[in-house]
Specification:
Layout: E1 14-17, E2 20-28, E3 31-36, E4 41-45, H1 46-75, H2 79-84, H3 112-124, E5 129-132, E6 138-142, E7 157-162, E8 166-175, H4 186-195, H5 197-210, E9 213-218, E10 228-235, E11 238-242, E12 248-251, H6 253-261, E13 269-278, H7 279-285, H8 288-299, H9 301-308, H10 311-314
Antiparallel strand pairs: 1-2, 2-3, 3-4, 5-6, 6-7, 7-8, 8-13, 9-10, 9-13, 10-11, 11-12
Helix pairs in contact: 3-8, 4-6, 4-9
């Protein structure tokens, strides 16, 4: 992108960044001079401070919207419906591990799908809902204000899926093979992963605590049935790219984001941060499977919120 950086600032007015409140003393594009309450002055790029200030404003607007949504939910007496979520789920069975969902019921809201949403709602205090994916052994978990059933590709979400061997569950976000407008969460997610150091630390902690890995699943060229999947793990507070010959190459966050930005504009990409669980273990856990999976969702909640924040304003 070229051109002058966005400038929401006015000389003499107060704003905030991660170090506290400051007053804009002078603007000399592309930089500006700011003064903190303790008298310290700093010359800083306008683009950097604008990104920080806009994120603070988005966080505050999102927090207000969530507070309003929770108050509205209480006013509509949602508790009885919440109490029904997952009431029929007794655990996964051998028969559930089939790519053909005919005859299975675990994706429904009275079963595992609803129990996952209900557990995450209880942990977060936010009204998460579940959505079964049409004709696929998969369910999405998302906040209703940031998710449109039937057009879920634009939205970041949590997911739970399974195949004949295992479950796969965590966070997923998608990049289109066409141009993306502000209704797509992908650009917000990538920007947050590059610039938000607190989010980077939270993601690393979650990855190491629950053995999560990034999977960058890129669609193949036309006529080639194989996908290209690159895996990035974490250890010792560092990301590592797993190579085909078994090496683990250390990555900084800019390097990781560069991998995402290298995906060609005409290729679709599914980006997962997720865990795999063997079928036997998932069956053995029974009802407690929902609690274990929801705990992963909750650990990744900062990543989800960073991806959806500001979308309402953009739309």
């Amino acid at each position: 992108m070229t051109g002058a950086p966005r400038n929401p600032f006015e000389v003499g007015k107060q704003y905030r960044n991660e170090h506290g409140a400051y007053t804009v003393v002078r603007i000399d594009a592309p930089d500006m001079v700011i003064r903190y309450a303790n008298g310290r002055t700093l010359v800083s790029p306008i683009a950097l401070q604008a990104r920080i200030w806009e994120r603070i404003c988005e966080d505050e607007a999102l927090a207000a919207a969530e507070k309003s949504a929770r108050a509205s939910a209480r006013g509509r007496s949602r508790t009885p419906r919440r109490a029904r979520l997952g009431r029929e789920f007794q655990g996964l069975s051998e028969a559930d591990f089939d790519q053909d969902v005919t005859g299975t019921s675990w994706r429904r809201r009275p079963e595992l799908g609803g129990m996952l949403a209900g557990r995450l709602a209880a942990l977060s205090g936010q009204p998460f809902e579940s959505h079964a994916v049409y004709r696929r052994p998969e369910v999405y978990i998302a906040l209703p204000q940031f998710f449109t059933p039937g057009d879920s590709f634009r939205s970041a979400k949590f997911f739970f899926s399974l195949n004949e061997r295992e479950t796969f569950h965590g966070f997923v976000i998608e990049k289109s093979d066409k141009s993306m407008d502000s209704s797509w969460d992908w650009p917000r997610c990538v920007d947050a992963l590059l610039h938000d150091k607190r989010l980077q630390a939270q993601v690393l902690v979650a990855m190491q605590a629950s053995d999560l890995a990034w999977e960058i699943d890129t669609s193949a060229p036309q006529g080639d049935p194989a996908h290209v999947v690159r895996t990035v793990t974490a250890s010792d507070e560092t990301l590592h790219l797993q190579t085909d010959d078994g090496e683990a190459l250390p990555l900084g966050w800019p390097d990781f984001v560069a991998l995402l930005e290298e995906v060609p504009s005409d290729r679709w990409c599914d980006l997962y941060l997720a865990a795999h669980m063997a079928k036997a273990r998932a069956i053995e856990l029974g009802v407690e499977l929902a609690q274990e999976v929801a705990a992963i969702y909750y650990a990744l909640l900062p990543l989800y919120m960073a991806s959806v924040r500001g979308r309402a304003a953009a739309e």
